[in-house]
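Narrative of activities, Objective 1.

The group set out to show that a structural description can be obtained from nothing but a protein's sequence at a throughput compatible with the screening campaign. Below is one input-output pair from the validation batch, recorded exactly as produced.
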Amino acid sequence: MSFIFQPMTHAGLFIDGSTQKFPVRRVYCVGRNYAAHAREMGFDPDREPPFFFCKPNDLESIVPVNQEAVDIPYPAQTSNYHYEIELVVAIGKDGKDISVEDAADYIYGYAVGLDMTRRDLQMAMREKGRPWEIGKAFDFSAPVGPIHPITQTGELNQADIHLTVNGETKQRSDVSHLIWNVSETIANLSTLFELKAGDLIFTGTPEGVGAVVKGDVMRADITGLTGITVNVK
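Output recorded for this entry:
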């Protein structure tokens, strides 16, 4: 097949203990999946059905992070640039209408991720009832650490999730506090889309989101996974 220009190269994430990369197909994100974060954003944290949005899967948006710190630029058209630490689930095989009981069979592994957000643009779109893309789906919006295969970690249903900015704790919770746990999220999402190997699911962020500026250093950690350090430039 011939193309008029070079097709996009998909992002590849590091895999803990391997020289191979995890090819990213689609990036799904769960909105307001911790009760305390729902409250701080002005919403009722009752267990309503989960909702989803997407980020791009290209190398301009996905930022693979390994052991060393990475730099990301402060994005254009915002003055309220927020961090959101999240447990990221990597899907390892295809499936649709997956049951909660079978959902873990579709997990390849887990990683630490940041759902970076132009909050002012997101809120402006929300108030007008418009899509969130300009607030969520911009360049360098998704740093993701190495994926740890589930064969090594087991199911990750309880783990400390912790983000600091310049060494000061900003977010701290436990993934057991997810309103919709990982298996429930996979089951629900698989009724809307056929999940495929290579998909990522950002499972939601705990309370404590806030802004960063140029020069800030973010450190994101989840117990049992490789943490990531991200510098805002």
